[in-house]
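Quick question, first post here. What does this chain look like in 3D?
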Amino acid sequence: MTVTPYRNSAKGKKEQVAEMFDNIASKYDFLNHFLSFGIDKIWRRKAIRLLIKHNPSNILDVATGTGDFAIESLKTAAREIVGVDISEEMLSFGRVKIEKLGVGKRITLQHGDAEELGFPDSYFEALTVAFGVRNFEDLPKGLTELNRVLKPGGMVCILEFSKPIYFPVKQLYSFYSFYILPFLGRLFSKDNSAYRYLPESVEKFPDGKEFLTLLKNSGFTETRQYRQTFGVATIYTGIK
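> Answer (accepted):
Ran it through. Tokens below.
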């Protein structure tokens, strides 16, 4: 069953996800760091450290949101970093951050669909996605599209929430995700569904070995996973 943000909406998942992020864009950065206790920043730093070893000259950050992963990518030697997202509101907040940092010559943000990327085959030397693949309407199609725009030998680096499997972290995380997080999300966000959708989408997401299989089926090799913070999140990497 496909998990969508708005249960009673007739729109497809892609349109609903865009609407949801447009609705929460103004509070997204605050809630993202607040609800994860700031640990999401550590996860991004670890992911980029894996990417630095491959020394990419250009990077595509898919589902870039407000650009946090693209900004973290500045630590690489990449001269060109492009972020794409389906939410115009998220992009608008990201552009403000990039302008304040004065890094507009290296980072550009543009509207785009992960399943239909407007770039030539084998264009980028690295691809990143942070907390975005869960939101793909057609996950295999999206991963295949990522592979299409990546150069042979290029690296994909995906950071995504996952499900802890060991006691007591599994039980504590489940309680926090399904009860505390939605309550706090409703308190600070004007979208009551967004932080209910997050744990539901994590619950249904094919994480771990299952996701590595999807990466392999999409054309990636040397696939690896790096579990973070007792399995709350996972960094996945692969080579084209």
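The chain has one domain: 13-239.
The chain has a mean pLDDT of 94.
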